[in-house]
């Protein structure tokens, strides 16, 4: 049977999701845990290749394995073989033709910015430290330009290969929480490589006046990565949810 | 001159605040940084002795040192010599007779509980994982009994020495935030050893029905540590603020 699995992890100590030789990755640790439970190597396929330092509370993956363990208990059985910074939250059976990437209807990411002169050490691994004061109203206004279907080439890491750079952003929510963290939450039908981090970097530039609110539209139209802001660092990013 | 200093730290990798032989403590690291800046050992005095694993965003300390560095710049000067998990947020000159503990009017602590069956790995070092579903309404009701002036002997670690166990709690706020974290925020004129952690452990017991709402009053009256709940683990606790 094909098993769809929801995974949460603290990405701090991993070289990202994707298995690679000589580095500890989330995929490898999960495959080892599943191997330890079922006694054989089973390849897993993730929905999203998160980068080194990026976190997830709603990553998804599938693997093929027949089992008599009830789906309610399988997460606990696998978690027994996982370190405490990776946890399986849920497992469910899906049809044979289910694909974790292609069947995704929409995904939600949150990017966190800590916006004070001196960093709060509790967020060293969980937020981007931006010192200049950010004008959240301007960020919200600029974010509105991103909503809808656009060619997001300006917000895609150079060298990335995609058949099309057209994606739809359904919503962007930007607000400051109780801990002085600015949370940028983006929901869309798909995301290009580094897209959320480049959007967050560009919104920060707009927030402290290095770019203007109306520049966001020009940046989209330019289809040119060099027009957008910097790629915000990985530790601020959380893959929150993937809906099918 | 006497310098009052506001300090934030991630307590994960320290054996608490208080200097002790053979262990890395927050106090020792701060004294070493100040020594590196001023070229001599200067003793610091903290307002609160946080335990191993406990965090702070508003710890306070004082030290005696004449300096020409403006108070706005001194935090950055000291931070240069600190690891990234300890940061000086603010320095200000105070009178010679100022005492960081005795002059404190009130302190605020927040205790965080992650209340799902499977732990969110992003909170491993920053929250207590409680699996049974907590009834927050019952916790709020029980919390109300704690507000006011009481003898809190039932909520003090055994063996602790204090002249009096009478303290005043001004407010308790309990709510669930967006990340499924239950935050217990307590403001009071002073706290006994482990008091916030024992209160949090007792509120959790009430939240999942191991104790009843009305038991809170009986526990206070009993003046007996064995009547209260467990001492919640250190990583959920943050010293937020000390007001003078």
- The ordered H/E elements of chain A are EHEEHEEEHEEEHHE
Shape field of chain A: globular
* Helical fraction of chain A: 10-25%
Kindly state the mean pLDDT of chain A as a whole number? 96
State the distance separating the first and last CA atoms of chain A: 18 Å
Q: Helix segment count of chain A?
A: 5
Radius of gyration of chain A: 19 Å
Strand residues, percent of chain A: 25-35%
Biggest interface goes to: A-B, 24 and 24 residues
- Overall structural class of chain A, as computed from helix and strand content, comes to alpha+beta
- Low-confidence regions of chain A: none
Oligomer status = homodimer
> Quick one: how many beta strands of chain A?
10
Q: Which sheet architecture does the biggest sheet of chain A show?
A: 10 strands, mixed
Q: What would the keywords be for this entry?
A:
homodimer, 10 strands, 10-stranded mixed sheet, alpha+beta, 5 helices, 244 residues
């Amino acid at each position: 049977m094909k098993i769809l699995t929801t995974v949460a992890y603290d990405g701090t100590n991993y070289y990202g999701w994707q298995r690679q030789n000589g580095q500890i990755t989330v995929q490898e640790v999960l495959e080892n845990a599943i191997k330890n439970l079922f006694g054989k190597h089973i390849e897993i396929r993730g929905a999203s290749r998160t980068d080194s330092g990026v976190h997830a509370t709603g990553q998804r993956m599938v693997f093929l394995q027949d089992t008599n363990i009830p789906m309610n208990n399988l997460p606990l059985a696998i978690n027994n073989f996982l370190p405490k910074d990776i946890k399986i939250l849920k497992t469910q059976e899906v049809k044979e033709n289910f694909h974790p990437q292609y069947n995704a209807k929409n995904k939600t990411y949150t990017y966190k910015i800590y916006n004070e002169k001196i960093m709060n050490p509790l967020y060293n691994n969980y937020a981007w430290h931006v010192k200049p004061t950010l004008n959240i109203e301007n960020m919200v206004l600029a974010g509105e330009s991103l909503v809808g279907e656009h060619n997001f080439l300006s917000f895609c890491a150079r060298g990335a290969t995609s058949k099309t750079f057209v994606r739809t952003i359904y919503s962007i929510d930007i607000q400051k929480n109780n801990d002085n963290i600015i949370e940028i939450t983006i929901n869309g039908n798909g995301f290009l490589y580094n897209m959320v981090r480049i959007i967050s970097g560009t919104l920060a530039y707009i927030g402290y006046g290095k770019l203007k609110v109306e520049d966001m539209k020009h940046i989209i139209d330019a289809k040119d990565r060099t027009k957008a802001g910097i790629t915000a660092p990985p530790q601020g990013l959380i893959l929150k949810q993937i809906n099918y």
